[in-house]
Amino acid sequence: DYTRQLDQALQFLQGADRFLIVSHVQPDGDAISSTLVAGWILRQLGKQYVMMNEGAVPVRLDFMEQSAAVINLSKEQPLSETYNRIIAVDCADFRRIGLVSGLFAEGAMLLNIDHHPTNDAFGAVNLIRTDAAATVEILYDLIIHAGFALDSEAATAIYTGLLTDTGGFRYSNTSPYVMQVASQMLAIGIPSHSIADRLLERMTKPQLLLLQRALSRLMFSDDSQIAWLYIAYEDMAETGAIGDDLEGLVNYALNVEGVEVGVLFKETADGNVKVSMRSSGKADVAAIAKSFGGGGHIRAAGCQLEGPLSAAMTKLVNAVSEALAQ
Ligand code: 5GP
Ligand code: MN
Ligand code: MN
């Protein structure tokens, strides 16, 4: 049960001196926050650790303490060092770890801390609670279980992970428990207004230019239950946008009255297509994503498709259509 998982996770952390903490490729708010909270827990235990991801810490998240210490593997020179003890946070499966898995020593032991329903328990030790809104919520449980006193550094990261994975406490995963935990973080005195302003309100100019292009191409299925947008590879350079600027774009498709599934297609450098899907709940987009080798949650999921863009769009929209017809 869950208490036993918390015990085993704590034993895992107490059982070695040095750890590698990793989250998923192109880390989001919960991924970075969870990485930082895991690091904070290890510091309470007097342990050494390195934090690393494939992909940079998004600029809007760099206000968090210790975020500058998170290494972006793809940008640093190749590291020859390997690690025996790994903590993977917010990764639904091993593949989500990306390039960083190349630094795992042979026979390395991995602690898998996650909230995705599609998590396949790939760790030697698994701490998984699929009704948690964010991985930071599980790390909060671990902190309480271990009896550590929260400070503003940890509270800020926990709050940020909750805020981002609940879309600003609006998605259906915003449980009473989320609000209880968030309330405790507010009581510690974190700058919640500036965090919300930075993460929910602020837009960069490239972000707005990208949105302008995406909206100009908004398309609907005949019955208007599916809406989709796309970003061609050259759009990024032409608007000056970076990967972070795609965050939230897919919601413009889902938020249209009557739309059940919103999709964003993003052409990548290799000509393939990254798909982001959002559902009102009528269709299970995790199941659709899974049928294309991806995964996620019922209402938010993703996968990669082979290019060209137009063929990928037709293929995926057809699959969504079929799922909605069932
Ligand atoms: P997003 O659309 O924001 O990239 O991802 C939405 C959700 O789907 C996230 O919870 C993420 O973990 C999951 N997801 C997105 N892309 C993939 C993918 O390629 N593979 C898997 N397994 N999950 C994905
Ligand atoms: Mn995530
Ligand atoms: Mn998450």
Automatic annotation (TrEMBL):
Transmembrane segments: none annotated. Residues 19-161 form the DDH domain. Pfam families: DHH, DHHA1. Signal peptide: none annotated. Residues 236-325 form the DHHA1 domain. PANTHER family: BIFUNCTIONAL OLIGORIBONUCLEASE AND PAP PHOSPHATASE NRNA (PTHR47618). This is Bifunctional oligoribonuclease/PAP phosphatase NrnA. It comes from Paenibacillus sepulcri.
